[in-house]
Amino acid sequence: MYYRNCVQELRERILKEGRCFPGGILKVDSFVNHQMDPNLMFHIGREFVVRFASLDINKVITIEASGIAPAIMVGFLLNVPVVFVKKKAPSTMDAQYTSTVHSFTKNRDYQVCVSKEYLGPEDRLLFIDDFLANGNAAAGVLDLCQQAGAKIEAMGFVIEKAFQEGGKMLDRLGIPHFSLAVIESLDDCQIKLAD
Ligand code: 5GP
Question: Is the model's pLDDT at 1 over the cut of 60?
Fold first, then answer.
């Protein structure tokens, strides 16, 4: 399978294909958020697995929708199940944990939930998501895990926007986290990557 260096490729594609929107939003619809590149995604998964190799993980957790692709690659490589937090409770879901998350891109609050069947005190989780911005999705997932008595061992993000607060919040909470590509600024619609 084609493999150069996934971090390098990710950085190049962000610069080449990324589109900036007002309010510090970056769209990478051609390979992450709409159309997806499974080859790149596989290597992103591999990079996370290498990075978090020392952790004893029994499950990967993510939040729908764009976190699912990188999370499933990590789950595949670690041979553990992947549970995704839902943004809408299905009528068929009985016992569930719920939390409220503020969406940065849509600027509204929404309820998220996960079935009690798939999250419990025995779980040692790796949270994977496409973006880290202000850390609201991460905080919502942490809340669900706390309710379940489950432990988040670490978090991995494909892209982090370092000019927002999520990374600092996770540092304050003492949660190990790692991002493959870090955006320093999107000022004047120029994508500036951190070294
Ligand atoms: P946070 O919860 O950390 O504020 O934002 C992360 C979540 O919002 C991610 O799940 C991601 O889907 C979405 N998000 C935040 N910022 C961006 C962005 O610049 N571009 C895209 N495509 N999604 C974002």
Answer: no
